[in-house]
Amino acid sequence: MNLIDRIVQFRAEIQSIRRDIHAHPELAYGEHRTSSKVAKLLESWGIEVHRGLGGTGVVGVLRNGGGRRSIGLRADMDALPVLEANRFAHASKHDGVMHACGHDGHTAMLLGAAKYLAELKPFDGTVNLIFQPAEEGGAGAQKMIDDGLFERFACDAVFGMHNWPGYAVGQFGTRPGPMMASGNRFEITVTGRGAHAAMPHQGVDPVYVAIQIAQGLQGIISRNKKPIDAAVLSITTIHAGDAINVIPDTAVLGGGVRTFEAAVTDLVESRMRRIAELTAEAHGATAKVKFERYYPATVNDPAQAAFAAGVLAEMVGPENVYPDCEPTMGSEDFSYMLRVRPGAYIFIGNGDGSHRLTGHGQGPCMLHNASFDFNDELIPIGATFWVRLVERFLAQR
Ligand SMILES: [Zn+2]
Ligand SMILES: [Zn+2]
Using one digit for the tens of pLDDT, what is the confidence trace for 1-23? Predict the structure, then answer.
């Protein structure tokens, strides 16, 4: 692996920043300590800093030479409402809040790149270092865009990177086109008429109707969408009733839908409405469907994904890069940036979990798990990749 020596030299400094952020996790739009730490570090390295984009977002700007090209590198900073099971020294000091998705590490890798780029300025053009709030459900990327991110900081292309448990350390993945799914959620309220449990004929049982609807919805996936179009529908909540001898008035189903294409989401939503409303009607009940699209699919620009894969292959060897990796049905709000700028999202292998220090909790090293920890081995690897990407991208004519 071709790592940059200088970055390897100051890895310990960035690692201690990463662990400090891990110990002080903050939820979406509450990243005050984190973003102010990021801003102060960038300033201490001589980088021009802009605060307050999308609330707690920070942009660092580095310019060098007369080059007109520009690039955006994005890291997310927020943590999750998870009670950390780890007991090692840098475990969360905020009960019920945890960096269980590794955004502490994403922030650290970009800081590592920033420090090196500011020190040596090995590029000609403009680098925008984008530290965003609220990736976990809060659409912080869109908030920064709404605050003029790309008008104020021109980016010919924008890149994001997520640690990926299961890929070995030193392995990377990206792909042309859809990489992560859209995130959509629904709630279906079935209203019947309550009755004594022993006299169902005197009412309209919303529980029975909700179960018919739940069964019917899976038919959208298996019978209505084209088999080669990816989509998943999960009913994850069912709420009804308080007493076992009372038929309630209402039953509520909730869940999520993931797809790679808006047209497939349209199909799922419209079929869901018909199945819910007409099934309810058939039984003398009514159904009200709320369907919310919270994140669009993350769709890489094919040329930028290939460009990033080429830079990676030089760095870690082609055998360690999946240029057409398997997409995931998880979702990611970097999708908003890719809707308005060409670019690519990249997975960086976080290993199998054996990096976790003694005292880590039971369980796998999967994202959003209470025993997760970002792998500090990735700091020089990810930072080197960001630097090489900047150098190559801005050198294009
Ligand atoms: Zn996450
Ligand atoms: Zn994440």
Answer: 899 999 999 999 999 999 999 99
Ligand located closest to 106 CA? 2
- Give just the sign of the alpha carbon dihedral 388, 393, 394, 397: positive
Q: Which residues contact 132 (CB under 8 A, 6 or more apart)?
A: 54, 57, 74, 75, 76, 77, 140, 141, 144
| This prediction's pTM | 0.94
What distance in angstroms lies between residue 104's CA and the mean position of ligand 2's atoms? 10
Stretch (H or E) spanning 71: strand 70-76
Q: Half-sphere exposure of 12 toward its Cβ, with a 13 Å CA cutoff?
A: 1
Residue 63 CA, ligand 1 centroid: distance in Å:
32
Kindly tell me the burial class for residue 319, based on how many C-beta atoms sit within 10 Å of its own C-beta (0-12, 13-18, 19 or more).
exposed
Q: Using an 8 Å Cβ cutoff, are 190 and 287 in contact?
A: yes
The amino acid occupying position 93 is K
pLDDT per residue as tens digits for the range 105-131: 999 999 999 999 999 999 999 999 999
Q: Which amino acid is at 203?
A: G
Cα(360) to centroid(ligand 1), Å: 19
CA distance 218 to 180: 22
